[in-house]
Structures are given as C-alpha cells and as structure tokens.
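Note on ligand handling. Small-molecule inputs were canonicalized before submission; formal charges were left as drawn, and no protonation-state enumeration was performed. Where a ligand contained multiple stereocentres, the stereochemistry in the source SMILES was retained. For adenosine-5'-diphosphate, this procedure yielded the string shown in the input block below.
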Amino acid sequence: MNELMLESKGVSKIFGGLTAVDQVDMKVFKGDIFGIIGPNGAGKTTFFNMCTGFYTASKGKLFFEGKDITKMSSDRIAQLGITRTFQNIKLFKYMNVLENISVGFHINTCSNVFDAVFHTKRYKKDEEYVMQKSMEILKKLGLQDYAYMMAGKLPYGIQRKVEIARALAVNPKLILLDEPAAGMNPMETDSLMEFIRLLNKDGYTIILIEHDMKFVMNLCNNIMVLNFGKKICEGTAEVVRNDQNVKEAYFGKGLTRGIA
Ligand SMILES: Nc1ncnc2c1ncn2[C@@H]1O[C@H](COP(=O)(O)OP(=O)(O)O)[C@@H](O)[C@H]1O
Ligand SMILES: [Mg+2]
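Structure output:
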C-alpha cells in the first residue's frame, strides 16, 4: 500500500475576483515523481505557493503526512519536510557553490544571532558541521568539482542543480520544483532529468511544474493538468497525452506549445 504524502482537498485561491486555483484535489504518494502541467496562468505556481505556506488557501485543506498544514507558516512547513525551488534561480551569485548550499542549512542549526555576531564556540562548531554537510550533499549529487566556484559564473544547467542541492539542506522528504528545465538547452534538460531521477532513487518524493511536455512525460509517474485553475485531467503520461480536454487546453486557443 502506497503511503500518502501530500494531499489537497478542494483547495482554491481567490485573488480579488480571480479564482487562480479552483477546488483542486490531489494526492501525492511517497516515492512519486508527480508532474503538474498546464498553460501559462493556469495556477500552477499559486498551487505550489499554498503547499509551501507562501499563500494561504482561500478554501479547502492541505495535509502533509496526515497533518493539516493549510494555515501553517512556510517555516513550519519547511521544518516538517517540504522544500521548494523557485521559477527564477535564486542563488547568491557572488558566493561559491559550497557557501550557497550552507545558506540552506541555517534554519537547521542551533546558533542564534548572538552566537553569529560574537563567533562563539557553538557558532564555529555549527559552521564546520554545515560546511561538512554541504560538501556531503555536493558529493552525493556529483557536484563537488564546483564547490569553490562562484555560483554566478557557472553554466545555467549547473546553477539549477546547485539550487536544487541547496533545497536538500533542510533535510526534506518532499521537493517541489517550479519549472526546473525552463531556459535549458536539450543537453542540460537531459542531464537535469537524470539528476531528478537520482534524487528520487535516493528517497525524495518530487513534485514538479514544467512546460516541457517531453520532460514531464518521461519523468513523472503521475501527472495533473490544470487549466484556468481547475484540474482537467490526471493520470499517467499515456492518459494525459490522449485526453481531449488536455489537447484543447493546449491547442484550442491557438497555443503552439507541443505535446510530445
Ligand atoms: N499574488 C497574486 N495576486 C493576484 N493575482 C495573482 C497572484 N499570483 C498569481 N496571480 C494570478 O493567478 C493566475 C495563476 O498564476 P500562476 O499560478 O502564476 O500560473 P502558472 O504558474 O500556472 O503560470 C494568473 O492569472 C496570475 O496573474
Ligand atoms: Mg508559474
């Protein structure tokens, strides 16, 4: 029996007069690579924002491992084990890769501001621990060669991986990726696909939003399609590919994005 990890029940988000997410039901199970697709403005990012506590749902409920997280803060949700990356890369460009990863740790260590300002013993111990753990993450993901390179100077595809690696610092169970392949060339996209498979094999459950249909179809065991905030289809790549509503959502209004 699969273990239910994240569940949304009738979740909606209303901005003024606009229903950006409209009564979405979703079940993500432990070990899934779950895809969320849909045309621009379909409500995908807004949905992520509710799952991670950046927005509060206007209606409905969200549960993580059976706990009601609907009204929890983003910090609390991160502590429970959900982490995310953003649509635009948010690395510290002038820090090296190792330092970027270490930033992700700071919500997990016990140093307080006093320790940091006065460089107490505890702070130094924490710093050593953080650097060591950061290096472990880089090694695990095959990124150790970049550890001392400045993040902003790295190729785009590598920056994306570093960003995902940083998200692992909080020791998550579930990772939410918002358009991880956006702006990548085909080689970078393939390499990212392998990278995500590696994370999944390592035990992380993954939900990803993506425009690139081929990417989603190849990677995800279950896919949910949103259009104008509503779930219009859910299933395997095969089901989604052949669904009439999905075809209309992508092609009906003259959109040219292809379905693989
Ligand atoms: N903070 C906000 N305030 C008002 N409208 C928003 C806000 N965030 C998103 N929206 C609107 O909600 C809809 C869904 O947006 P979004 O979730 O970003 O779509 P997607 O990620 O699928 O492209 C869009 O019409 C967008 O303009
Ligand atoms: Mg978006």
